[in-house]
Write the structure tokens for this entry.
Amino acid sequence: MGRQGLVHGRNYSKVKRMDWISKQAKLYRNLALTHRYQAIVHLEDQEDERFWDYQLQHVKPGRYRYLYYSKNNNGTDTRGCEQCLRFKPYLTDQFFICIDSDLRLLRGEEGLTANNHVAQTYAYSWENHLCESVHIQERMRHNIEQVDFDMNEFITAFSKIVYTPLRYLIFYSADSNLNKLWNISKFNACIPLQPKRSELDNNGKEYLSVIKSRFEEGLKNLSEQPTGKIESLTEENAYLHIQGHLLYKMILHIGTLLCRGTDVAFKTDILDKSLHTNGYDEIESLQKDLHKILIQ
């Protein structure tokens, strides 16, 4: 009898956990209709709104209601990508989610498509898009009269350096034992975030050499070689798939050093204004997904 009651209790709890998500989803879908929003959009956090609203307004201008959190299976207010994904069975063109790809894209996680009303960054996070090499170099050229540093050239060289270590990271993350040998913490530790101004001469040649040496040291004892090709990863776009806050902090520090002695504030005048909707595959894929969800 005790065993039977325990099983019943588990089933009952499962129904209740599912009910939190489905009830909220129904509420959000109705909210879009009753308040005449273009859509209700669940984000990972409030700080994501500026980026996603910029992208959505470009596709279909209008009023959007953004959710920064919702209740999880236990009825607790919860943020983040996993919480967004809990709504996947209930999403529509009037209630959908916008998430960071993290490493899911490179790992080939299935189901994260516009057909399932999931929009994603096609980069590790939206911060990576602020650091896109061509756009940020254009803003630097426009805002700084004289600068002896080509951000596009620097990021291109940096991307080539992180490409192979990133392939190892994806391969090793699929196995718990291998992941102990090479993981995102060890990967990030190879990128010092505050180079000296002197290390930035010749488009950061000395700083890039330090990063390259650290990665070579980190990989030299790894016996298992990555196998297979990752379709969405190239030497040119690898930098878009490292942790966004890491890339952002590195570019912010470099840009701040370069702007010393000028009246340009790198963060507010250049970096945080580098929002765009075209010019490279990742942002255009994001735009196509939003178009498919909103306009079809």
About this structure: Strands lie at 39-42, 64-67, 70-71, 77-78, 95-99, 118-120.
